[in-house]
């Protein structure tokens, strides 16, 4: 995350930092990326399914 923060500071583009923070929050919350469950054959929980229905939740 530090590297993305440095990149955001150098370029003035906060999108880089927001990108990594959003993904970090998902891993902190679910211990994985629920977006990849279909590829790995895992079943989504109700909470993971709700996340995927949120606006701008896809990568």
TrEMBL record:
Pfam family of the protein (one): DUF924
Listed SUPFAM superfamilies: TPR-like
Superkingdom assignment: Bacteria
Naturally occurring in which organism (per UniProt): Trinickia fusca
Protein name: DUF924 family protein
């Amino acid at each position: 995350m530090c590297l993305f923060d440095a990149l955001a500071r150098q370029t003035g583009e906060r999108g880089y930092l927001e990108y990594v923070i959003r993904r970090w929050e998902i891993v902190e919350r679910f211990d994985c990326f629920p977006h990849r469950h279909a590829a790995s054959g895992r079943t989504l929980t109700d909470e993971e399914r709700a996340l995927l229905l949120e606006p701008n939740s896809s990568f």
